[in-house]
Amino acid sequence: MPKETFFRLPKAKQQRLMDAAYQEFARAPFNETSISNIIKHAGIPRGSYYQYFDDKSDLYFYLLKTVRQRTVLTLQQVMTKHHGDLFPAMSEFFGKTITALVHGPHAALYRNVFLHMDFHSAAKMAGSKAPFLKPPHGHQEIHDFLLTSIDRSRLRIRADDEVSLLIRQIVGMFIQTIAYYYSNQAEGKPITVAELKRRGDQLLDWLQFGVSNDDHNHH
Amino acid sequence: MPKETFFRLPKAKQQRLMDAAYQEFARAPFNETSISNIIKHAGIPRGSYYQYFDDKSDLYFYLLKTVRQRTVLTLQQVMTKHHGDLFPAMSEFFGKTITALVHGPHAALYRNVFLHMDFHSAAKMAGSKAPFLKPPHGHQEIHDFLLTSIDRSRLRIRADDEVSLLIRQIVGMFIQTIAYYYSNQAEGKPITVAELKRRGDQLLDWLQFGVSNDDHNHH
DNA sequence: TCCGTCATATGACAAGGTGTCATTATAAAC
DNA sequence: GTTTATAATGACACCTTGTCATATGACGGA
Hints:
2 copies of one chain form a homodimer. By secondary structure, chain A is mainly alpha-helical. Chain A folds into 2 domains: 1-54, Orthogonal Bundle (Arc Repressor Mutant, subunit A); 64-211. Chain A has 11 helices and no strands. Chain A is globular and about 65 Å long. Chain A starts with a helix and ends in a 10-residue tail after the last helix. At the A-B interface, helix 8, helix 10 and helix 11 of A face helix 8, helix 10 and helix 11 of B. The structure holds a DNA duplex. Chains A, B: Residues 11-71 form the HTH tetR-type domain.
C-alpha cells in the first residue's frame, strides 16, 4: 500500500500520479513499464515517488484495487439476484465481466493485467488470507462474500474449505479463460467474445454436472 | 531457441553454460535473474552470450525444455497403463509429478517456474499451436498426445475442440494447484504434499462427476 | 608460405532503470 | 523568530541489457 504521505497529498497531485500510472500500466505489461515513465508523465521528481510508494508493485496493486471495485459490486448483485445459486450466477457474472473487460474503457489495462498475471498473484486474487490484502475490497472480501452467500443445498459439498476450494477453482478458471482470449489475440488468431463466453459456460457446465459419461456416472 | 552457433560449441562449453543457467534460474524467479550472473558463473564473455541466445527467455525456455522431458514420458506411460481412462490416469500422473516437483532434485527450479508462471505461458503450456513451440517435446506434443489417447467413450464430450478445452482446463488446474502450494509456502503457512494431492484429486472428482447436488443433477 | 574468408570471441560502451541520501524547502507550533 | 516535523528534490552509485568494432583462429587455395 502507498505510504501515509501519499494520502496526505493534495487530491490533485494524487490524481495526477494515478493518471500517469494508469497510462503507463495500460501502455505495456508490468515488466516493461517503468517508474521513470510514470514520474515523467506526472511531473514528479524521482525522490518524491519513493516518499509515496515502496516500489513499482506498490503503485500497481493500489491502482488495480481502485479499478476493480466495480467488479466486486457486480458479483454481489448477481449472487443476490440468483439467491445464491452458484452456477447461474457465475455464468451471468462471467458474461457481464468479460464484456466489460474486453470492450470497456479499461480494456488496454486489463489486457496487460490478465495476460501477464502470474499464478502467485492469481492465488491471492482467488482469496489469500495474507495480511497485506486485508484492506476493504481486497480479494479476500470476494472470497468471503461468496463463502457465505452460496446456497450449498444445491451442491454435493458442504464444508467451508471445500467450498473455498471450489471458489478458487472457478476464479482461476475465469482468469485462465480470459488469459486464453488475450493469448490468442496476441498470437494473431483472435477469438470472439461470444466464443469466449461459450467456453466459460462450457467449463461451468462441466464442473456442475461432470464430464463423465452417464454409463459411468456416480461413484 | 538457441542459435546454431551454440549447438556447434564444444559439449563442455555448452554444459558449462547450461549449468550456470540452471543455477541462476533455481536461485531466483525469472525477473530477478540476470544474464550477467549466468555468464559470470559460466566464465563466458557478454558478447558471446548474444552469439548463442537471443535474450534471457531464449535460454530459459530451452533449459526448461530439457528438464521437462522426463515429465512427458511419465504422462505417456500413465495414459497407456490406464488405457486412456482420463481421470484415473490424471490422478496418478498428478500424484507422481507433484512428488517429483516438490521433493525431487529440481525442486528449487520448479518453485520459481510455477510460482511466477504467467497465464500467457500457461496457455502455451496447455497446448498452443504457435510455431515457435513446434520443436520435439514442446507442449503441443503433450496436448496432441492426450487428444488422441483419451478414451472418449467414458466422457459425455466427443468433439476435438471440446476435448481440447478439457485438456487445457486440467493442465491449468494442475498448474494452479501447484502454484497454490508454493504460494502458501511463500507466505509461511505451508501445506503438505499429501494435502496437495487430496486437493488435486478433489478437483478431478468434481470435474468428472460434477459438484451439483443429485436432486438437481442433469439438465 | 601467404592470403582471403568465414565463423567465433571479446569487452568496452551507450542507454536506461532502480533505490538512496544529503540537502532544501515548507509550514505549523511555540 | 526559532524550533520541529514533514515533504521535496535531484545527483549518485550501481545494475542490466543489447550492440558493435575489433581481434582471433582455422581452413582452403594459389
